[in-house]
Amino acid sequence: MANVNPGSNSGIGQTQTVGMGEIIMAHHTLKEVIRRTPLLRDSYLSQKYDCEVFLKREDLQVVRSFKIRGAYHKIRSLSGEEREKGIVCASAGNHAQGVAYSCNALGIRGKIYMPSTTPGQKVSQVRMFGGDSVEVILTGDTFDDAFAEAMNACRSEGMVFIHPFDDPGIIAGNGTVGMEILEDAKGQVDYLFVTIGGGGLSAGVGAYVKTVSPATRLIGVEPEGAASMTEAFAQNQVVTLEQIDKFVDGAAVKRVGQLTYDICRQLLDGIVLVPEGKVCTTILELYNHNAIVAEPAGALSIAALDSMKEEIRGKRVVCIVSGGNNDIDRMQEIKERSLIHEGLKHYFTVNFPQRAGALREFLDEVLGPDDDIVRFEYTKKHNKDNGPALVGIELKRREDYAPLMERMDKKGISYIELNQNPVLFNLLI
Question: Is pTM beyond 0.85 here?
Answer without folding.
Answer: yes
